[in-house]
Automatic annotation (TrEMBL):
Native source species: Labilithrix luteola
GO molecular function, one term: transmembrane transporter activity
The protein's name: Drug resistance transporter EmrB/QacA subfamily
Membrane topology listed for this record: Multi-pass membrane protein
Subcellular location: Cell membrane
Amino acid sequence: MLSLALAQFVVVMNTSVVNIALPSIRLGLGLSPVELTWVINAYVLAFGGLLLAGGRAADVFGRSRVFTVSLAAFGVTSLGAAVAPGAGFLIAFRGLQGIAAAVLSPAALSIALTLYPKGHARSVALAVWGVVSGAGGAAGVIAGGMLTTTFGWRSVFVAALPFVGLSLVMPSSQGTSSTESSDRPTFDVLGAVLVTGALGLLTFSLAGITHHGWLSTRTMGLFVIGALLLVAFVEVERRSMAPLVRLGLFANPSVRFANAAMTLVGGAWLALFFFLPLYQQQVLGYSALRTGLTQLPLAVAIMVASTQVRRITVRLGARTTLVGGLVLLTVGLAGFSRIRVDATFLGHLLGPSLLVGLGLGVAFVELTSLGTHGVAPAESGLASGLVNATRQCGGAMGLALLVSLAASRTGSAAEPGVAALTEGYRTAFLAASVLTGVATLLALRAPRPTALSTSAVDNHEPSQHP
């Protein structure tokens, strides 16, 4: 389990450590605001778009084998990003990092769920997963600040290498070879291409709204083509003998809800960690190190909430716990929408940071649990890949949309400079709170996991999985 936890740790850390370095990357390579978003989105979009394929690869080709190969690839691409000579190379290596992470993360989680398939042990495993994710976020913000300040932005990509090496020399599991690989030797390449292309075009259309407008030929054209590719993906999956996503999985109401809600939460989550360090460094004048240290309470709050969510769920129930977490998250994001040019950490940032951290910790654990509840062991890789894919893809599309909204608000602000930037960031945080507010309304009607325990989904009969 330690090797699996380290792998998840490094994937999460890779996101937060880069976020702190964004202003330095922009200055170092002379990136435009749109190019800067693609330092994040190239990773997130490849990660989210290929998580479905990654989860299926773990199921088909053997989880331990796929875990080891993808972990090594993550290390190699991290080194490539560290030595990238220009913006194009950096964005390309970030995309390759995302591909490696897309295979690594669901492989690790599916091994963990196979080792601890049900009951208290499964709850503990999911809690550990949440703790590790929170610890990765906390380590990333601290390491990002220290490394950027001391050695420059390139060092943040090197930070992953020791953890990758340590995880590689540890045994990942005992007896976790995928038994279904001999039964399903084929891999749905066409499905993977269609869904990744669709999500990429949809995100690209949203990213260009600022310059081209909502109803421009470019925006609408990309959106329509992306939507058509999604329709084609569904049709291919419906007809395929070995689909990337077995559509019958969505007959499970828990899976349907968890992925819909995770899409919305993901959009707010990624935008938060993109805009907050930019606001702190560009408006408040914080150094990279100070930015990392002041984001530590947020990361620690995620970790603390993740450790306690199972205990709270036993007392209050999954739905009540999830709704409470989403309310905290929404209120915290709304609090960030009241930031000012002369804001102080104690007066304006600490309170919202703690609320957001607690809310995210609860929401991520509960939605991951719901997204894998009642799923056959043979499809645990698919289910874990799906719930992570919706978070990442929702994050990519949410970030593209909120960057466009923030840029539009900044451009129309009455006062130029940092005041205009602040207006844009306030708009982005407010829009993010709307996304999580919608997720909260959905959670009021979330299915109760106990109601699914005796369903056909849990029986694992062959007739239920054509």
